[in-house]
Design goal:
With 221 residues, this protein is mainly alpha-helical. The protein is 81% helix and 0% strand. It has one domain (2-220). The chain has ten helices and no strands. The longest helix is centred in the last third of the chain and has 42 residues, at 170-211.
């Protein structure tokens, strides 16, 4: 099936980029330094989101009947994940892209993680995810992970001084500005999810009308 082949390709690219990104930076570290780096590496929302997307592209064909496979196939879950990875791509492109200039394989990883994976998952959502049952509650349920992530980021930073992104760097900006920044991002995320739910419902309604125009006409009547 086209759907399965698409997801296998997307999953392979995603896992490749995550593993390569980690190995490129971890290869020069050892012992406690490697442990600290590993914790920091998995403290980036980019990495967390890309791992979730890679799982969402892998489990539907590798373990579709497993509990986790069934969970990631839910339209609400895939819509929330689409929101996460869109935010990753937008924040990188609009706010972070000019802060550093990777070369070689590091550049390849950045392109896959921030551009290729978001594009492929949005296409997957548009083409293969049934959207008829999407409800507006999806937008608020999707806040659970970002809120937990913000809590972890602030705790981790307070204990170890590591902040993964400039706009959450309490040492430079202070708590007041950081809380304003993350509140703005959370509001933007809710608006994005609401837009995805609205788009999904419109696409579902249009698809139903195209498949059964007579029934749609009777319903309107």
């Amino acid at each position: 099936m086209i759907e399965t082949g698409f997801r296998i390709t997307a999953a392979a690219l995603g896992w490749f980029a995550i593993a390569l990104q980690y190995s490129l930076f971890a290869s020069t570290r050892a012992g406690p330094e490697l442990i600290g780096f590993t914790i920091n590496f998995f403290s980036y929302f980019t990495i967390i989101s890309n791992i979730l997307i890679a799982l969402a592209m892998t489990l539907p064909w590798l373990a579709p009947k497993s509990r986790l496979g069934t969970w990631v196939m839910q339209p609400s879950v895939r819509t929330v994940l689409a929101g996460y990875i869109i935010v990753v791509g937008l924040v990188y492109h609009l706010m972070l892209r000019g802060l550093f200039h990777p070369q070689g394989w590091r550049l390849v990883c950045q392109i896959i993680l921030h551009y290729v994976t978001p594009t492929l998952f949005v296409l997957d959502w548009l083409l293969f995810v049934p959207k008829r049952a999407l409800t507006w509650r999806v937008a608020f349920g999707g806040l659970v992970l970002p809120v937990l992530y913000i809590g972890w980021t602030l705790l981790h930073g307070a204990l170890g001084g590591f902040y993964p992104y400039p706009f959450v760097n309490v040492l430079r900006l202070g708590y007041e500005q950081v809380l304003l920044n993350v509140t703005g991002l959370l509001l933007a995320f809710v608006c994005l999810l609401l837009a995805l739910v609205g788009l999904g419902r419109l696409l579902s309604a249009a698809s139903m009308r195209n498949r059964n125009p007579d029934e749609a006409q009777r319903t309107r009547g």
